[in-house]
Design brief:
Number of helices of chain B: 3
CATH superfamily of the largest domain in chain B: Nucleic acid-binding proteins
Strand order of the largest sheet of chain B: 1-3-4-6-5
Largest interface: A-B, 37 and 40 residues
Distance between the termini of chain A: 35 Å
Helix content of chain A: over 70%
Distance between the termini of chain B: 67 Å
Number of domains of chain B: 2
Number of domains of chain A: 1
Structural class of chain A: mainly alpha
CATH class of the largest domain in chain B: Mainly Beta
Number of helices of chain A: 8
Order of helices and strands of chain B: HHEEEEEEH
Number of strands of chain A: 0
Oligomer: heterodimer
Radius of gyration of chain A: 19 Å
Strand content of chain A: under 5%
Helix content of chain B: 25-40%
Chain lengths: 236, 142
């Protein structure tokens, strides 16, 4: 399984494989979106604005998920010095960045009709902004530092520090009073969300996971090619 | 077997992570007052020095049958099921503001029992369900 992500393996990734994944993604997305936007019922107090949740929750989930991978990969990279791990992390960062922005924007759009304000500086919302800043710093550091080893070190340290922010985001709604509601889906207890809304939510999650996978595979291949070209240049 | 270099890096990392975790823990512990978005009526009741100039937020549930509307003016009671506080507010209230639902009021304390709000935010809880299910649930409860 892990061997498939080794740099030489990814280069043999065919266009057809990606095309199949894209078709699968489009099918799941079409099904998920029509279920979420038309077939699922409105909420008993929020009405139709509950439908924003079907994009907001998966986007936040993946923004956190991608960053946890970035952090763990960076720790492995700093300790064991395996270069392809940082290439994986580097190709995963832009997807996570976009998802964190989507999460904040959709959350804000939902906040206005529900809370009555676009934005509040509560713990959950603030820590999410901090996550966006970490993503930005991570991507920016890769862009501006030319030397690969230096960039690798700097970005890994950024991701490691950013890792501390993740439990703060996750548990902010439990540790402190926040305007943001606590999680509806937890590992320990039954979800407080009705199954007619839970199913489309899970389908949308799956669709966005597929999206992340497709973008990641495409980027990772490009990053490996770029890395090899740069290596050759340095030898000449 | 791990090489000596990897081992030393691993332990350096472990020490760094533990000390950073402690540091962050202490920072958040000392900042707790600023992180909480609102205070509950009980927390306000327990506070010894309340100032009527400082802007604060009070949150809890809107007590049943406590909303009194008079034109633009609205009075209601925020409760955390232990202590209560009367809130007086003039202006537009959010759509989701209703009895027995979460609310956060922003404004100034007059005293421990009376709060003058200049902004009202509706707080949504973690329950999501279709209207029919809610109706069925209400029926079984009565």
């Amino acid at each position: 399984m892990l061997k498939n992500f080794f740099p030489n393996k990814i280069l043999s990734l065919k266009h057809e494989t990606i095309n199949i994944l894209v078709i699968l993604l489009l099918l799941i997305l079409a099904f998920g979106l029509s279920y979420a936007l038309f077939l699922s019922p409105p909420d008993y107090i929020q009405g139709d604005s509950v439908r924003i949740m079907y994009v907001h929750v998966p986007a936040s989930f993946l923004a956190l998920g991608c960053f946890s991978f970035l952090g763990i990969a960076s720790i492995c990279n700093l300790i064991f010095k395996i270069k392809f791990i940082s290439l994986i992390a580097k190709s995963l960062a832009p997807v996570g960045f976009i998802f964190s922005i989507i999460s904040v924007v959709t959350g804000s759009l939902w906040g206005k009709p529900t809370w009555g304000v676009w934005w509040a500086w509560d713990a959950r919302l603030t820590s999410m902004i901090v996550l966006i800043i970490f993503y930005f710093a991570y991507i920016f550091a890769w862009k501006v530092i030319d030397n690969f080893d230096k960039a690798n070190r700097t970005t890994s340290i950024i991701a490691c520090i950013g890792l501390f922010n993740l439990p703060i985001i996750k548990y902010s709604v439990d540790w402190w009073n926040t305007l943001h509601q606590p999680s509806s889906i937890t590992l320990t207890s039954a979800p407080t969300i009705h199954y007619t809304m839970l199913i489309p939510l899970l389908i949308m999650c799956l669709a966005m996971i597929f999206y992340t996978l497709v973008i990641f595979l495409m980027r990772y291949k490009i990053e490996v090619i770029k890395f090899k070209i740069n290596k050759k240049k340095n030898y000449k | 077997m791990l090489s000596k270099k990897v081992k030393s890096r691993f332990f350096l990392f472990l020490i760094l992570i533990i000390s950073l975790t402690l540091l962050i823990l202490f920072i958040f512990k000392s900042l707790e007052k600023n992180i909480v978005y609102f205070l509950s009526p009980t927390e306000i009741y327990n506070q010894t020095n309340i100032s009527s100039d400082k802007k604060i937020r009070v949150g809890g549930l809107v007590k049943k049958n406590s909303i009194i509307k008079d034109g633009d003016k609205i009075n209601f009671i925020i409760t955390d099921l232990k202590k209560e506080i009367i809130v007086s507010y003039t202006g537009i209230i959010p759509n989701l503001f209703s009895e027995e639902k979460g609310v956060v009021a922003e404004g100034k304390l007059k005293d421990k029992k009376y709060f003058i709000a200049d902004t009202i935010l509706a707080k949504h809880d973690e329950n999501y369900m279709p209207p029919e299910v809610k109706k069925a649930l209400d029926k079984t409860n009565y």
